[in-house]
Amino acid sequence: MAVSGALLVLFLFAHAAGNLKIFVGETDFDHYAEWLRDLGTPLLPHGWFLWLQRIGLLAGIGLHIWAATALTIRAKKARPVKYAHRPKIQGSYAARTMRWGGVIIVLFVIYHILDLTTGTFNPAGGDVDPSARVIAGFAPDRWYVTLFYTLAVVSVGFHLRHGIWSAFRTLGQQTTKGERRAKAVALVLSVVLVAMYLSVPFAVLTGLVG
Amino acid sequence: MVANEFWAEGEPVVDKAAPDGPVETRWERRKFSAKLVNPANRRKLTVIVVGTGLAGGSAAATLAEAGYRVKSYCYQDSPRRAHSIAAQGGINAAKNYRNDGDSVYRLFYDTVKGGDFRARESNVYRLAQVSVNIIDQCVAQGVPFAREYGGLLDNRSFGGTQVSRTFYARGQTGQQLLLGAYQAMERQIGLGNIEMNARHEMLELIIVDGKARGIVVRDMVTGEITTEFADAVVLASGGYGNVFFLSTNAKGCNVTASWRAHRKGALFANPCYTQIHPTCIPESGSHQSKLTLMSESLRNDGRVWVPKRAEDCQKPAGEIAEEDRDYYLERIYPSFGNLVPRDIASRAAKNVCDEGRGVGPGGLGVYLDFADAIKRLGRKAVEAKYGNLFEMYERITGEDPYETPMRIYPAVHYTMGGLWVDYDLQSTIEGLFVVGEANFSDHGANRLGASALMQGLADGYFVLPNTISNYLANGPFPAVSETDAPVVEARKEVEDRIAKFLSIDGDRTVDSFHRELGQIMWEYCGMERTEEGLTKAIGLIRALKEEFWTRVKVPGKGEELNQNLEKAGRVADFLELGELMCIDALHRRESCGGHFRAESQTSDGEALRHDDEFGYAAAWEYFGADGKPTLHKEDLNFEYVHPSTRSYK
Amino acid sequence: MDIKVRVWRQSGPTAGGKMVTYDVKGISPDASFLEMIDVLNETLILNGDDPIAFDHDCREGICGACSMVINGVAHGPEKATTTCQLHMRKFKDGDVIDVEPWRAAAFPVIKDLVVDRSAFDKIIQAGGYITAPTGTAPDAHAAPVPKKDADAAFEAATCIGCGACVAACPNGSSMLFTAAKIAHLGLMPQGQPERDSRVIDMLQAQDDAGFGGCTNAGECTTVCPKGIPLSLIGRLNSDYRKAISKR
């Protein structure tokens, strides 16, 4: 979980950094999208690098989900009879919502791809520039989409807050000082990431971009 | 008092295994003279060990390491839960790491004197000798003893001694030592050298051709009764303080294993020697199920007092003016003050409560006040020293000891008596060995602080493994079969007894009988005993025993987990033991250690021994539930430490 | 005070179970939780009912026998406290209190609130020891241990093996128990020779016993009566990684 999770966190940051290009200008954003496809040329044909990335990413997600499923199955087996009095959450809320949080995030990612990558759910469709899709997708009259994105991104934040700290622990973090640091790093990274991701739809919503 | 309506007197009992000559070399010589078992033959020999505390756990691990086949039994769900785990203070060893004049001889001297000259010199000397090896052994196992900044072991001093020889692990020394023994044992279980049977209770001893050859056990989960055979049986089943119902013992601690052996012929020595610990949390009501010990170390800084006038007892402590308080220990014992030995502090508390000056519910408590210490050292310093104890007190009583003084009262803590054993730790039944608190051998009439852990581990790690070989060298003994008459009989006794418990179907619970027995014992065979009281108690116990066998109600079946059935068997044995304790206390018309007879005291109320008349260990032989127990005396000779009077004024 | 308790009743290992409600009247706030059950049991016996079976022994918080999940929390509402040291004054008159056994496949119910925790012994058997046969030990001062390490080892060694960590863990994992023993022994110089094999073998035994996997949820440490810290799991993971890389 820790290793695949770390891969995914790296991706999330790269993705967020790219998103911010929209503040530089719509054309820059479109160029960035194009550059992603151009990367690796002429060694690789156009678009191949992106597909390699996508395959790597899918493998990361697959591993992450596989590990999570295995742990969940083990957990179910380890407690065949449930408590009649539902246990109170005593540790952190983020820790106890990892599983359902993960499922919600997967569903969101599917929607997200259909919305902004393929354009299936996007009012502007898949045939326009990526920046146009973004601007059409988060248009003010589609506030509910922004709301949905917000909730999803916040849940990613929660997932990361426990996930990043937990990854440190799984990889052997053990001192009190280190724990404080790991918790701080997890919190800062999650907040920064959430802020980076939310800045784009809100900028569109408020008309800052568009 | 000579033999009378309560008991008969028989031949003296003699320890034939004890070597004579200089005390310093007795153990070496005994080890050398003891027969050995060839390593190849050891795996043909089976030893049953009942109990997995410090003595039983260390014995089982060591015997298994040596190559014997060991079968181990405990009533708890895991050997790690034996009650040794609750010992707080520490373990003595004559390491002299402090260079403060300690030595094997001094530990020997202190222990004989602390035992009020009622222990065997040979045994105590050996205990002091091997104490040194125990610490080495435990450190090698990874026991996390307290250490100083230089990385070496820390020591503290304990009551009754003038040197620092107590090794400790915070307030959980017993836990850490037991886990060391437990882990050594689990390793042997994993290797297949020990067959561990947790949740199994020994209910009878099997004797074939005069030798202990096995036990009858009940699987406490399924209720199945089985017979288990071996070449020797070791009892490490602990003390019998629970005869008082309320004690600091674990709820499950019982005398059944020892008592069953006693009924089959093993002598029971000095049953009346009971250690009553002065600093326990008092009873809070009729629901009380056990008492909790507060470390004795509290008396280093706490001052013990009660109101001078009985009418002040209901007032909150804070409203009683300084001049109306009686710091009675400081008043009566100016030189030792609040640090007098356990027995003296306990009796003094009882006396002031008997005068009607006790505090708290039922007037059974005295104050242990830290106000002066907090003023002198500051709250922080007191917190650093006793914080965890204060928390525990608050958790149990709901009172904050930083604000209001603690209330304490004495409680039964340890029993010095037990099955009689010789120098080899063998009882009067051949092949039956007894180790730890279950035997009587090392503490005399009073045990010093931090000596119980020392004795348990000495017996289990170092003494028994060396002496049992002398017996096992004659084995393997002829195979025993399920159909042998003594086996069939022992099994039937167990089955009949269980059937009897279940069939009475009376109108009183087992606990109600146990509680009543405890009240009788505490009242008449507790901190102060009189001829009149003990005679009365014997009558009361006999009547209670009769009532028990006609009115007890044990619910459920035998073939299931049945905690009340377990309790019934234990209480039935406690009823018989209680009577013997009173008889022993009645016959010993002197005061010594944990036995105070009101008729035998000095003009200022201190214990008065009669060495000429009672300088012996009293070993009792069983003669039927209604027969008279027979006294066998073992004369105690003091060649090195000459009896003197203890004085703490 | 008068309360109601809803207790898990199960007559045997293979029987089904259910929550049964009992009234307990006039219980003293100074009674411990187990004493409250004692009082209830006395009534049940005299009424001809089967008393509630529960594990308990020392009743002073150190043996680790007592094991009740009270209102969904292992050992009940008070922090760093075993069931036996929990007192009724922590509840209110009229409360309805749910009492259940530890629930884990590795801790099957024997009867009512009594479970079989021998899986913990199996984990220790696999490597939770230092091999030091009696009589082979060097002098205790032969290997000094820095006070910091000795103190940390002691803290880890205070685990009482009650199993509350497993009972509370959403995954039914015994990681905190195992980690405490790994830390205790791994912090002592005497524990170094077996350090690598210990962590591998104990983790294997833990998996074999049917405990769940650890996801660092942290519920274990909040219910642990001895406050064993979650950081010890990080230590175990680090030991495991090193041990595996040496293979």
UniProtKB/TrEMBL annotation, chain B:
Cofactor: FAD
A single GO BP: anaerobic respiration
The EC number(s) this enzyme carries: 1.3.5.1
Ranges where the FAD-dependent oxidoreductase 2 FAD-binding domain occurs: 47-453
Alphabetized Pfam families for the sequence: FAD_binding_2, Succ_DH_flav_C
Coiled coil spans: none
CC terms in the record's Gene Ontology section: plasma membrane
Superkingdom of this protein's organism: Bacteria
Fumarate reductase/succinate dehydrogenase flavoprotein-like C-terminal domain: residues covered: 514-648
Top-level EC class as recorded in UniProt: oxidoreductase
Active site: R342 (proton acceptor)
Subcellular location: Cell membrane
Catalytic activity: a quinone + succinate = fumarate + a quinol
MF term (GO), any: electron transfer activity
Keyword Isomerase annotated: no
Keywords of the record: Cell membrane, Electron transport, FAD, Flavoprotein, Membrane, Oxidoreductase, Transport
PANTHER family (UniProt xref): SUCCINATE DEHYDROGENASE 2 FLAVOPROTEIN SUBUNIT, SUCCINATE DEHYDROGENASE FLAVOPROTEIN SUBUNIT
Protein family membership: Belongs to the FAD-dependent oxidoreductase 2 family. FRD/SDH subfamily.
Name recorded for this polypeptide: succinate dehydrogenase
Gene source species: Actinoplanes campanulatus
Automatic annotation (TrEMBL), chain C:
Similarity-based family: Belongs to the succinate dehydrogenase/fumarate reductase iron-sulfur protein family.
All copies of domain 4Fe-4S ferredoxin-type, residue ranges: 150-179
Cofactor field: [2Fe-2S] cluster; [3Fe-4S] cluster
Gene3D superfamilies cross-referenced by the UniProt entry: 3.10.20.30, Alpha-helical ferredoxin
Record organism: Actinoplanes campanulatus
Sequence ranges assigned to domain 2Fe-2S ferredoxin-type in this UniProt record: 18-103
Pfam family, one: Fer4_8
Name the record gives this protein: Succinate dehydrogenase / fumarate reductase iron-sulfur subunit
GO biological process terms on file: aerobic respiration; respiratory electron transport chain
Top enzyme class: oxidoreductase
Highest taxon of the lineage: Bacteria
Keyword RNA-binding assigned: no
InterPro entries attached to this UniProt entry: 2Fe-2S_ferredoxin-like_sf, 2Fe-2S_ferredoxin-type, 2Fe2S_fd_BS, 4Fe4S_Fe-S-bd, 4Fe4S_Fe_S_CS, Beta-grasp_dom_sf, Helical_ferredxn, SDH/FRD_Iron-Sulfur
One MF term in the entry's GO annotations: succinate dehydrogenase (quinone) activity
Assigned keywords, A-Z: Iron, Iron-sulfur, Metal-binding, Oxidoreductase
Residues making up the signal peptide according to the UniProt record: none
E.C. designation(s): 1.3.5.1, 1.3.5.4
